[in-house]
Amino acid sequence: DSGVTQTPKHLITATGQRVTLRCSPRSGDLSVYWYQQSLDQGLQFLIQYYNGEERAKGNILERFSAQQFPDLHSELNLSSLELGDSALYFCASSVEGGPSTDTQYFGPGTRLTVL
Amino acid sequence: AQKITQTQPGMFVQEKEAVTLDCTYDTSDQSYGLFWYKQPSSGEMIFLIYQGSYDEQNATEGRYSLNFQKARKSANLVISASQLGDSAMYFCAMREGNTGGFKTIFGAGTRLFVKA
To answer: Less Cβ around it within 10 Å: N or C end of chain A?
Structure first.
C-alpha cells in the first residue's frame, strides 16, 4: 500500500458525460500528479500540482481539468467524454514535486470505461 | 525522439534465476533521476528502485539492483532469484528538468514472465 488513495476504483459512464476522479496523497506529500494509461498510448503524464498550484502540464486535453485543494487532495475532471478516454487514470504523489530525486508513489488507479 | 527506450516487449525467466530488463534514456540534463516501477496484473504501480545521475554506486533494494552506465545512458534493472510473483509489467522512468519545470517520462514497459 503506497499510502495514496483514489476513488472510485471503477467508473462506467456514457459518451458526452462528465466525471470527477479523486485522489488523496500520502501524508506529508505536497505534490500530486495525474497520469493516463491506455493500451495504445502507454503511461502519459497529464498534470502536476504542488501545494495547490499547477506546477507542470503534460498531454492534458482541454476537456480535462484538475485542481488541488487546501487539504492537498486533488480532483481530475473529465468532460464531454469520448470512447477514447477509456483508460486507467493514476494519481501519484511526492514530497517536493521538484528535483529529479523526488520519488512518485502511485495510487491504485481509477479504471474509466466510456460506453 | 524516444526519451526512454525499453527494447524488450516481453521476457521469460526461469524461477530462481536472475534477469536483466533493459532501459536506455536520452537527456541533455546533468541532473536527472531514473526509476523502475512494477505493474502486476492487478494494475497498481509499485515503486522499486531509484538511481540519481550523480550517484556513483549502483542502487540496490533487496533483490532489485540497477545497473547504471552513465556514459552509455543505460539503467538496466536486474532482478535476482526470480519468483513467480515477479511476473508483471516493468516500467523504466526518467525525471529531468530544472527550476523552470520538471517532468517524468515513462518507457513503454517490458512484460516479464517467470516460469516455474
So the answer is: N
Whether residue A102 and residue B105 make contact (CB cut-off 8 A), yes or no, is no
Q: Is the pLDDT of residue B113 over 90?
A: yes
For residue B45, what is the nearest residue in chain A, using CA coordinates? A106
Contact B32 A109 (CB under 8 A): no
Please name the member of B91, B101, B108 whose beta carbon is closest to the beta carbon of A56: B101
CB nearest to B32's CB, from A2, A100, A103: A100
What is the pLDDT, as a whole number, of residue A20?
Answer: 98
Tell me the chain B residues in contact with residue A90 when contact means C-beta distances shorter than 8 Å.
45
Task: Note the pLDDT of residue A53.
Answer: 92
Contact B47 A106 (CB under 8 A): yes
Of the pLDDT bands very low, low, confident and very high (cuts 50, 70, 90), residue B2 is low
Which burial class, exposed, middle or buried, applies to A40 when counting CB atoms under 10 A from its CB (0-12, 13-18, 19+)?
A: exposed
Average pLDDT over all residues of chain B: 93
pLDDT(A30) > 60? yes
- Report, as an integer, the average pLDDT of A5-20: 97
How many helices and strands (H and E) does chain A possess? 0, 11
What's the grid cell of residue A2?
503506497
How far is the C-alpha of A105 from the C-alpha of B47, rounded, in Å? 7
pLDDT confidence of residue A6: 97
What is the rounded distance in angstroms from the CA atom of residue B38 to the CA atom of residue B18?
Answer: 16
- The CA–CA distances, whole Å, from B21 to A1, B54, B76 equal 24, 22, 6
